[in-house]
Records
---
Amino acid sequence: MELKPRRTWSKKGNLTESFGFLRPVPWCCCHGEIAILGGIEEQNEKLWSFAKKASHIQLDSLPEVPLLVDVPCLSAQLDDSILNIVKDHIFKHGTVASRPPVQIEELIEKPGGIIVRWCKVDDDFTAQDYRLQFRKCTSNHFEDVYVGSETEFIVLHIDPNVDYQFRVCARGDGRQEWSPWSVPQIGHSTLVPHEWTTGFEGYSLSSRRNIALRNDSESSGVLYSNAPTYFCGQTLTFRVETVGQPDRRDSIGVCAEKQNGYESLQRDQAVCISTNGAVFVNGKEMTNQLPAVTSGSTVTFDVEAVTLGTTNNNEGGNFKLRVTISSNNREVVFDWLLDQSCGSLYFGCSFFYPGWKVLVF
């Protein structure tokens, strides 16, 4: 698009100059109008040619035509000298882009959050940083939620069954100004947020009860979720925000049911990872080991049902779940045998020294 002046004379003899951004006319509009004009024989030939060309053109290859109300335009009575000054100021403070160089491509619901993924759509644009904003659809104000070089981010503190709007822009390599915003996308989560159980003396919780901090209390034991909100087929994520002194009895994991009186999830009917990277299944330490948990580590659990009937084995257990635990770009996969069918699971953690802080989502 380009900026061009339009001149008209008023009844009083004053020259009126206005200028705006001229919109490109799509190929189909021009050639379609030509095809329906002219004589019968010529018209038939042009219509046949028009239909043949149109069948080979992809819709997304056409230029985007904005609504007239969305096109910036300034109209005033100006002489030539003032017009040139105004035009210089407009081009000094603004730019015109055919479309934003980055767009949101996917929204994935999580318990209490939404993963937003975006991608570049302009190969000639080299992005240095991205800026993600969101708002409730009932709000008039967007707020920044992420600025950085990654192309995905999980937005937490999402209320279930509430629509949110997301948009993203980018900053080119070596530039200070941001690109135009992407087309806003609407997303929501129907999943109940994960929460830790309140009232456990050894842990302090955040206001949304999704962050647990091991405090200085001498009380020890397993802090469980307040309900079995983790379902097979989902991904359960723990992010370690801060670390304390490690202990071999530390544990982060899932279990079929709450069992009070245990100091760790390294027990029957549970799978977990210790802060030193050891993996335990039904209280038995596995041969494969993951990297030690450090500040900023993300540990994920993916569980899927394998067997819905009685299994013939010598290890006990009637139902089998396949568990994948990932941490620091490494993962282990194993089968977990349970005494009874379990469609939803509790999650839990235990730390023996203060300072450990864990976010679950």
---
Amino acid sequence: MKTGRAWRVGIKDFLMMSGNRQRPHLKGPSWLILLVCFISIFLIGLYIYPPRNTAACYIFFSSGCSGHGDGPSVPSRELTDEETAARVVITEILKSPLVESKNPKVAFMFLTPGPLPFEMLWDKFFQGNEGRFTVYVHASRGQANFVSPHFIGRNIRSEKVDWGKISMIDAEKRLLMNALQDPDNQHFALLSDSCVPLQPFDYVYNYLIFTNVSFIDCYDDPGPHGAGGRYTEPMLPEIEYKYFRKGSQWFTMTRRHALIIMADSLYYKKFRLYCRPGMPEGRNCYADEHYFQTLFYMVDPSGISNWSVTYVDWSERKWHPRSYKPQDITTKLLRNITAFDTSLHYTSDAKKTVLKTPCIWNGMRRPCFLFARKFFPETLDNWMKIFPNSTTF
């Protein structure tokens, strides 16, 4: 019963006890001033030292609470049946323990129009690591022919992909559904035909397998190339403006998050209908830059890194990132890229803000990037010469 008594000791008891110890010089509203001071000190303490994984945390600081796997936040409105069903499924996936694999593998998923210009570089990357990876190739313009044994027979059924349209997301989902059929695949990396590896296989494998977050690029861009120009009200009520996020499409993803993508139809439908090029009022929206980013910011924000492990140079701030030519490929370039431990994002509003995200891996500052793009095919020979043989993780 001591617990019950302690719970009942509240403000009223505090005032009664204060009343029994009144001093002559405390007149008028002095007790009220003391009460306000007490509450102010309490709230300041909560702000400086917010509680974690407690009811108090979610009452006072819902946006700052840690809780990977706790599921979507408590809604502020009555949900539709479809939303409730979606939240139930997503919450169950986040909370359910995954079957551990005795031989965890990384699924390397290549999204390409046709052949892979860097096939032999990837072959060099994979050599000697059989049994720790799987390869899947989505060639949208027809089956690609390969020479490397690591790629032969790894084409999946593919369909046409149009840049900026929902077919890009469909292709990524097609890669994921094929890779998920192997229960040993625990982490899934999406790569393009212009991607190259920056680190040896062991480094990449340890980086991805021994983390429990998905490396999904995600940031708030209020400008015309972000929420300010691409969000539309028909996405309501399921997707509010404040949740709309942007980021690179080149992700790596945990098995749990890959399952959520397979299970989701509600939020996918919103992006299929209302995020596309040529929308009303001259708006253009590109689902591959917003769907995964917005979805996971809504349902599991603590489960994503907010930066991509694939390096892309957007510093020129054009429609497309910088493309590298043979003369650019040097050991100095490789050292520079692999030394970055901060990821940069550039907003498209008038402020042109540079957002800096430190690259934190399991609580430690680490280099950000495992892969890089975009490189012209004729850079292959130079990459074969400088690709590292070993790197300490």
